[in-house]
Amino acid sequence: xxxxxxxxxxxxxxxxxxxxxxxxxxxxxxxxxxxxxxxxxxxxxxxxxxxxxxxxxxxxxxxxxxxxxxxxxxxxxxxxxxxxxxxxxxxxxxxxxx
Length: 98
What we know:
Keywords: Lipid metabolism, Repeat. InterPro entries: PLipase_D_fam. By secondary structure, the chain is of the alpha+beta class. It has one domain (2-97). The protein has helices at 2-11, 37-51, 57-63, 88-97; strands at residues 17-22, 73-78.
């Protein structure tokens, strides 16, 4: 991935990688709990491989002279959401909308 971005940068090509990851790479639960150790480790490894640790994707590109890294690679996360204390009006609107 880094090599391909560097080739595009050197050639002046329009090239972009879009990385989409879950906000939390596991099932719902408390990240502070002992049984979430694996999930926390995955999140740490993701963070370090993207932007920290000396050999990350972003650091490597910057060391190679890519100033605007966001021109070539972007990271997004997905997460679920839910409503708390849904009003009766909202429930009725959702029911009618199917």
